[in-house]
Specification:
Elements: E1 4-11, H1 18-27, E2 34-42, H2 48-53, E3 61-66, H3 72-82, E4 87-90, H4 102-111, E5 116-120, H5 134-151, E6 163-166, H6 167-170, H7 182-192, E7 197-201, H8 217-232
Parallel strand pairs: 1-2, 1-4, 2-3, 5-7
Antiparallel strand pairs: 4-6, 5-6
Helix pairs in contact: 5-8, 7-8
């Protein structure tokens, strides 16, 4: 049974939401599961760093900082290296994904022998999803389809921001990507090692570019390139 989780929160210029996300994680009651929160400030230039400094009083929060913006991939690698608990959870800092869903995301580890669990925005069965960006949805589904072709998985949401791994599983691959290309890299490298994947339907409260969304179509082409790169790389 899972008794501990490490929540990795990479953030870059998220002054509007970072404390709200962390408070949601702190307030979670996961019964007998202990929490370790690892926040990586990836070279923020707004007030994110100052806000994070106010959290140094919490024993279960580890604050890490990059002196300049290196990308989501580098932030995740920094956090994964420091994570010490059984399960590692990737939690975006923008409130698009709700920490209250951790309990159901952890279930496949306890009940079905999962090594990897993805929260899917497209699986169906969630209470609600905010409607935004048709072409983003199309791009996500195309990337997932191409990734499925090479991994022989039947995922519905490879680009999800909710990814959970056994500690020893994610640390058993060498991660290379610095930016959002790390999403397909993780999936392909874990699939090549024949780890057991599960998906769980999740709620999704997407935000607009005016609200701070950062990923764009350029990142979709980077992800597509990474799918081919890591599918053929030995």
């Amino acid at each position: 049974m899972i008794s501990s989780i490490s929540i990795i929160i990479p953030c870059y210029n998220e002054e509007k939401t970072i404390l709200k996300v962390i408070q949601k994680v702190l307030d979670l009651n996961l019964e007998n599961i202990s929490k370790e929160i690892i926040v990586i400030d990836d070279g923020s230039t707004d007030n994110t760093s100052k806000l994070l400094d106010t959290l140094s009083k919490f024993d279960n929060i580890i604050l890490l900082k990059h002196n300049k913006n290196l990308g989501k991939g580098e932030a995740l690698k920094t956090g994964i290296t420091k994570a010490s608990n059984q399960i590692i959870v990737i939690q975006d800092a923008d409130l698009e994904y709700d920490p209250s869903e951790y309990s159901k995301l952890i279930k496949p580890f306890n009940e079905a022998g999962a090594d990897v669990v993805y929260g899917s925005r497209f699986l169906g069965g969630s209470e609600y999803n905010r409607l935004l960006f048709f072409w983003h949805s199309v791009a996500n589904k195309i990337l997932t389809l191409v990734c499925n072709f090479f991994t022989n998985l039947n995922m519905t949401d490879m680009e999800t921001g909710f990814k959970l791994f056994k500690n020893e599983v994610i640390k058993n691959i060498n991660l290379e990507e610095k930016s959002f290309g790390i999403e397909p890299e993780i999936t392909i490298k874990l699939a090549k090692k024949k780890y057991i994947f599960y998906e769980v339907p999740i709620k999704y409260r997407g935000r607009s570019y005016a609200e701070g969304k950062k990923i764009g179509f350029k990142d979709a082409f980077i992800a597509l390139y990474c799918i081919f790169k890591y599918s053929f790389k030995k």
